[in-house]
Amino acid sequence: MLSLILHGRKSLELQRWRNLRFAVNPLQYSSAFSSASASLQDGRKGHNFTASYLVTSLGFTTKLAESISKKVSFEDNVNPQSVLSLLRGYGFRDSHISSIITNYPGLLTLDAERDLDPKLKFLKSRGASTSELTEILSKVPKILRIKKDKTLSRYYDFVREIVQADKSSSSEFEVSLPLPHVRFEESLKKVLEMGFDPTTSRFVQALRMLYQMSEKTIQDKVNVYTRLGLSGEDVWEMFKKWPTFMTNSEKKITQTFETFSKCGLVEEEILSAFKKFPQCIGASEHNCVDTGRLSLW
């Protein structure tokens, strides 16, 4: 009898606990659902406003505007309008601006006065004409992502060379090699895939190296190093550390190897020095000795 009573009490307590749990949880689930729902609605509101703004302000098609709104969104026109006003003040036409925003929609979220105006002023101060500035930035707007003036000027000058070469190639009747802008896009993609930071000078160096050298030339360079005992992966890791090392001729590469050997380094130590300090390749004998010592630490 006592066991039945105890069992009944336990069952009653268990039932009360279940009732309490389900009495509380619906409120929690309801609150969480409401918060998620509100967040989703805010996101849709931002995407809808962005798409509508791009259609009315820049004449984008609905399809293109909706596609861009998935990459960037804003809930009012204050910031994007200030960006557009600044660009127009520098002589950018709507066709230029449309091209820029299509390729770099994040530009509309930047602070026009703090982030963009100083860069445009800097480029103008270097002698860039309005026609040159608008043409180059409409082709490669992500130049404006770069923060440091020195890197910005290097990247801008390099792109300018490509644009000028593109014009020359386009005027020819037959072009046996890929057009410069196609080569540029391919080289840019490779450099980004390697993990180079677009805001650094090393990024510009790597881009220049890959753009200026043909696939055959690059492979020939890699083959020289693999014959010495390095792997292809080793060579590209060296490239990440010091992109300009790829310009060294086979003669310079082998001479550096021989110099290290004369200094008493064995093959394994020489290859280690190459991997750690690719800038030593082609250096003077004195610098090679110093590098060899460092590589042993």
UniProtKB/TrEMBL annotation:
GO MF, one example: nucleic acid binding
Keywords annotated in UniProt: Transcription, Transcription regulation, Transcription termination, Transit peptide
InterPro entries from the UniProt entry: MTERF, MTERF_sf
Any Gene Ontology biological process: DNA-templated transcription termination
GO CC entries: chloroplast
Similarity field: Belongs to the mTERF family.
Protein name: BnaA09g13550D protein
Species assigned in the record: Brassica napus
